[in-house]
Amino acid sequence: MRIVLIFFKFGSVFYKMDNQVIKILQTGGVGVLLTDTLYGLVGSALNKKTVARIYKLKYRQNHKPPIVLIASIEDLKIFGIEINNGIKESLKNIWPGPVSVILPCPYKKFEYLHRGTKTLAVRWPDKKSLINILKKTGPLVAPSANVEGLPHAKNIKEAKNYFNDEVDFYVAQSGTKNKPSRIIRIDKDGIVVLRE
To answer: In whole angstroms, what separates CA 21 from the centre of its chain?
Structure first.
């Protein structure tokens, strides 16, 4: 496995080197990079093999759906997610930001993502460098960079302890909040907070 180890002292430098990362992700690769919340183990949400590889790397339980990062609210259409005007207004008050929203996705073609729950946890992050990547790669699954049941990696050294040379790249940036996203569900009763 070819490893691209990229370190950045300042987050704003990231955009200058992201083409290499984008190319790897576009071709089904998997890597570790800083999302808007934690370091994530990322790969294309539209590639079944990539998603399966991430589950294997994390030893993730098969019934647990991953969080999916999108570049804009329009990306919901990729998954056939239709939202009414009320939900759209609620999302505009939440996104972009560190909030993952559980939305209905009953389609069999996305069962490898929703894992039978018929819902997806989706987040539109508020991070320019990440949005630039998402615009070119399409939606990315981005569970935290750790083995299931163990603490999330707070830096690249910790991520490498988990995944060694089993991933295609590591990107280190400063500025991690080291806090997972808030998870909510929006339904007819309003907003239900599932994780603060």
So the answer is: 15
